[in-house]
Amino acid sequence: MTPLALFPLLYSVSVFPLTYTVVSSITTPALLVAKVCTLQNSFQPSFVADGDYVIGGIFPLHYNQEMPDLNSTYRPPPVKCNGAFRWAQTMRLAVEEINQSPRLLPNYTLGYKIFDSCAYPLTGQRAALAVLNGLSEGNSPMCSSVSPLLAVIGESGSAQSIVVSRILQPFRIPMISYFSSCACLTDRRKYPTFFRVIPNDDYQVKAIAQMLVRFNWTWVGLVRGDHEYGRFAVQGLMKELQGTKVCVAYQEMIPLLYNHQRALEIMQVDTLNYILHSSAKVVVVFSAEGEMTPFLRDYMVQNITGIQWVASEAWVTASVFTGNEYYPYLGGTIGFGIRKGHISKLSDYLQTALYGCSPSSSSGSQMPPCSGQESLLEQHSAYMNTSSPRVAYNVYKAVYAIAHSLHNLFLCQPGSGPFQNNSCAQSNDIHPWQEVTFNIDGEEVDFDLKGDSIPYYDIINWQRGTGGNIEFVNVGLFDGTKPVGEELVIQEDRIMWAGHQSEVPVSVCSASCFPGSRKAVRRGEPVCCFDCVPCDNGKISNQTNSIECTFCPEDFWSNKDRTACIPKKVEYLTFDSLGIALTVISVLGACLTLAVFAVFFYHRNTAIVRVNNSELSFFILFALTLCFLCSLVFIGKPTSWSCMLRHTAFSITFSLCISCILGKTLVVLAAFTATRPGANIMKWLGIKQQRGIIFSCTLVQLVICAAWLIDAPPSPSRNTKYERSKIILECSVGSSLAFWCVLGYIGLQACLCFILAFLARKLPGNFNEAKFITFSMLIFCAVWLAFIPAYISAPGNYADAVESFAILASSFGLLFCLFAPKCYIIVLKPEKNTKQHLMGKEKK
């Protein structure tokens, strides 16, 4: 598309009486049809220059306006303003350069009408109407002819631009803003003739959000001006922060009409109180230079320091804040500034405007040459700093955009135009929203379909200069044309933060949760405010600010700090202190049993050995030796073979032992019964029968164990439920029914022995073995009855220890109860080791 004009020629629109009567401050309905044009008021201050085409300019030549009393009883006086004028001078310079250019609009001249808005929408409205009209009745073309107004350069604030754009829209007069960045102005239905040479705030709030996330500022305050610029910027930032870890601690508003006393009350009660006492040490401000100046002065009066300011483009490069009195309070401020440029003649032009002399020695100048001795007043120093103009450069580009548009309109040839059927613009059919592209000082100026320019920002950091004043140092950039994630480039090592610190300030509601803990959000508070809760056992967090702790895998457990999963400690009954003790006891028991066996074998021909059936005694001692030794199988890492051997060896050896005791009990009972007349029971309890009883009783246990091993044998298992921090290696019984059948059968044998021995306890004789069998069975049953609950409640290696202890305790009980009295007689009382003494027939 061929670039064309941004604006129409105003003679295509004809609504002059209405326009003029709107300007009047005391309009009545009758004036709507009035034929007499009378100027009702004037507007000061202003800059005016004639030309073939006139460009309007609306600038905040002054700030801090004092509004008059509008009680409608008298004509209101002009608004009183106090402030600066460099941007307007830049427009005048650009117009003069264009008029002197032989290449741009060579046969035409541009004029201008510049009025002051005082950075306030109401005053901006009056300025817009003044631009549409004239300065006096004599030069007011709206009364007699069409206005030669080509376009309007303005406004600085978005609130003022909204008002001015709506006034200009019915006349189809385009408006190019140099400093209105509100995203609301991109609506082409509401503002079809609005353009700007500054990026809209959608990009700025995106850049600020990325900066907050980058520096981990998760707890920030927001301060905005009382206008659309501040309101839409805060809304956009809140939207950008959704889904991030950044929370807003507070939102405060600076009054638009800044009354010192009222504003101070608001700040003391609210804004400054939040800033002073909030844990949010980073404050983002969307405000214009006008209201920020008195606000920051009051801020400094309160002597608040340590705040990291994040400035929007509207005030981050405001030269009014370069004084050294600002540095202790505002030093380290960081923000996004609009792109700077170079205006070669601006410094000389401003000097001419200030001192009324020409800094150049050209003969064509109507001003007297400057002597070089002119003193630069302190209040003028900010306006004479033209080393890196930003807003002024935008004004400069806006004027050139209008000039290039008009130039392109004059160069358009029928058949190659950008309109329907390739036609050129006609006086009655001008489209002000057409694009224009041109190059100025190496920079390409372009507008998108929404009237916005290329999104580009410099990152500005306020640092102390050599004279103690504030200097704006470029520490990075934001290029909105780059891919997502690559737009923001910051040179962190060049940044000086608030308080003249080189470390990035911390601004969080809650300190970070270190690895080993998780964040627990406080009820009723933003997600950035949380408590740090240590991870539970078996859970870890290995990152800072973890939202939740994660479970360790099944075979792992959390370390002491809850930062890593380590292999669980594997426990089983090993040769530690407990295992060694059980081993010693087991070996000692086996040795004692073998010693008794040796004593009995050595004295096998004595009466006490022979009377008590030496063969059964040797069987019992053999079985007890196995019982003592089988407890050793419970010590060590469980394996498939050891697990099967543990329970089967224990059950078979004890069954063999109890079977032998049962046989001995039957023999004792039969021996004493056989002494009665007519008794013939001993023939049924001979050696073969005794062996048969032992074999049969033991065979039953063998069958149970065989069935157990075939159906569901014991096997090694990893117990992680009893104590989750450990893996307890144990032997699973496999079939619980078989396990309890084995124990039950041994218990049945023991009970039968106990009953039979109990019946024979009072039979005559000096050595009635039935008494000792009764006592041994009593101990045996007591041990195993106590074993059952202890075994069920004890975990892993302790369960094995309990079972091993029960085996040893019951074995020692049988050994001592059955053989200690006999050994005592054999070794210490040999005189009683006679048949007569044992039968009670010894001579007194």
Automatic annotation (TrEMBL):
Chain ranges of the G-protein coupled receptors family 3 profile domain: 578-842
Location, primary (coarse class): membrane
Molecular function per GO: G protein-coupled receptor activity
SUPFAM superfamilies to which the protein is assigned, alphabetical: Periplasmic binding protein-like I (SSF53822)
CDD domains cross-referenced by the UniProt entry: 7tmC_V2R_pheromone
GO (cellular component) term, any one: plasma membrane
Record key words, sorted: Cell membrane, G-protein coupled receptor, Glycoprotein, Membrane, Receptor, Signal, Transducer, Transmembrane, Transmembrane helix
InterPro entries, per the entry: ANF_lig-bd_rcpt, GPCR_3, GPCR_3_9-Cys_dom, GPCR_3_9-Cys_sf, GPCR_3_C, GPCR_3_Ca_sens_rcpt-rel, GPCR_3_CS, GPCR_3_vmron_rcpt_2
TM annotation in the entry: 578-602, 614-636, 648-672, 693-710, 737-760, 772-792, 804-827
Domain of life of the native organism: Eukaryota
Cross-referenced PANTHER family: CALCIUM-SENSING RECEPTOR-RELATED, EXTRACELLULAR CALCIUM-SENSING RECEPTOR ISOFORM X2-RELATED
Protein family (similarity comment): Belongs to the G-protein coupled receptor 3 family.
Protein's name according to its UniProt entry: Extracellular calcium-sensing receptor-like
Organism taxonomic ancestry: Eukaryota, Metazoa, Chordata, Craniata, Vertebrata
